[in-house]
Amino acid sequence: MITEPGRPVAVFPLRAMWCCAAAQAEAALGNLAAARDWAARAVESADAVALSGQRAYAELALAAGHTDDPDATAEHHLRAADLFAAARLVPAEARARLSLGHRLADAHRLSDAALAIGQAKRLADASGAVHLAHLAVNAQRRIGGNRPRPGPSTLSDQEHRIAHLVARGRTNRAVAAELFISVKTVEGHLTRIFRKFRVTSRSALTAALRIPEAP
Asked: What is the largest CA-CA distance in the chain?
């Protein structure tokens, strides 16, 4: 047992994990005030034992207490994942990164979400966590389904103008002259346009835009 000014504090190595479970249960019931109270206890317990794994559970408890703020929740999940990694608790890190992916998706940060879920999948595969890997695959499918499909709706106004001029047979120099921009700027825009349409040639872009090629 260790003491703090005014009161004794019992040290239990796994107490932060238990407090985390309680915080998550309260959050699931919508009791954020109670979840935050348990999170505070988790932090206190983790500080007492100074173990990376228990600090990670404290971060997850803090995340549970901030489910009304996707960005804050994502930040706590990221810290938890990094702490689990430091403790070499691979399955726990995989779960934390999968949860991080979900929270990033809630915050509409789909690219970051896909990256986190991909990391979770690799960790789950490496540790033989088959069910967790399956959950990660399902999450990847959901994230993929929420991404904008390639097409005109993903282009900026300038990219839209350049794409249509190129599809109608204009050279980069002609596009630059018509839009009063440099050839290098046109080339940069065209690279992004090709990437967004997932094409590698002007003719493929023309086909994607469904514009008849210039004779």
From this structure: 88
